[in-house]
Amino acid sequence: MKQQKKGFYLALFATLLAVVVVGLGAYTRLVHAGLGCPDWPGCYGFLLVPETLQEIAVAEMVYPNAPVEVAKGWAEMIHRYVAGSLLLLVLMIAVISFRNRHTEGQPVALPFITLGLIILQAAFGMWTVTLKLWPQVVTAHLLGGFASLSLLFLLTLRLSGLRWKRVDISKASAGIKRFAFLALLVVVLQATLGGWTSSNYAALACPDFPQCHGQWLPELDMVTGFDVSQSIGPNYLGGQLDSGARTAIHFSHRIGALVASLILALLFLKIWKFSRSLSFTERTSLQRLSFLMLLALLVQIGLGITNVVGHLPLSVAVAHNLGGAALLLTLVAINYRLNKKTDEIGGAPL
């Protein structure tokens, strides 16, 4: 039977809330509201977005180079409010885990690691504003969001009390554990390319598909496109790179998608081949996870293509970000399933 540990439902709720934060972050970026409030943590010096004529007059006097756009301000502030709520929720989970640290199988370090990461995320949120959407910071902020979501998902699994029969990994002669970890790293790298594409406003640098500007190999300025030492400021809203650099970024993201798809497809086949040597219970859990991974991959490919041919429709672009998160979570689950040490998720405290 399942026996959930203390903090399970909070962890589950935090995971779902983290999904909302990732979605809101994507929406804020896509509607160009990343600088909807030119300061942090408030908005034009107010706790709420200034809306009255008097508040707007004061705000624009203090920030004369940042005219108030109420809708963009609210998009930014709602993202901050929800992210702040997530921080408080994870703090509660960390306190509960510490109080129950002597309970067998109770994770202790993992909640605090997650809390530290989310605090760092808050700092990146501040730097996103103060450094005027500097692509390096925006990309790191996106990856931090994905990492926070992944850790919360892992914590939820560990606290769930779900029992999976042990998989004898010694049967995996092809080194499936190592290949699954490789697949996870490839997805993280592809997410990084996606973040770099978005933060440099290169999502529509190739307006056609499957070719790019009517060519299979367009002119690419890789040096400029991937120059991570580019200077800070004055303002990256809308991007500052030329066409060749943005094309290089977008084209690299497409190539990355192709490589990731091939590796994940191969992992799917390896899991099914490996599963033949397992019992029915062991085989079913792994195969279901591999099916979820494949489904998430196919959806993500479809959303990516739709973004290009549909010229970046907002709903599809947000879904593409969430699809990337979902694909990452399936890889986290597969890796955890393959590396589990005991019959019960969680094992020794972490």
Brief summary of the model shown:
The chain has 350 residues and is mainly α. It has helices spanning 8-30, 53-62, 70-99, 109-130, 135-160, 176-199, 222-225, 243-275, 280-309, 314-339. Helices cover 65% and strands 0% of the residues.
Describe the structure in your own words:
α8 (243-275) packs antiparallel against α9 (280-309). The chain has helices spanning 8-30, 53-62, 70-99, 109-130, 135-160, 176-199, 222-225, 243-275, 280-309, 314-339. Helices cover 65% and strands 0% of the residues. It has 10 helices and no strands. With 350 residues, it is mainly α. The two termini are 22 Å apart.
Structural class: mainly alpha
Give the overall shape, derived from the CA principal axes: flat
Number of helices: 10
Q: What gyration radius follows from the Cα positions, in whole Å?
A: 22 Å
Biggest β-sheet: count, sense, barrel?
none
* Helix content, binned percent: 55-70%
- Counted beta strands: 0
Residue ranges: pLDDT <50 for 5 or more in a row?
A: 342-350
What is the CA-CA span between the terminal residues? 22 Å
- Give the SSE order as H and E letters: HHHHHHHHHH
Strand content: under 5%
The average pLDDT value, as a whole number, equals 89
Pick out its properties:
single chain; 350 residues; mainly alpha; flat; disordered C terminus
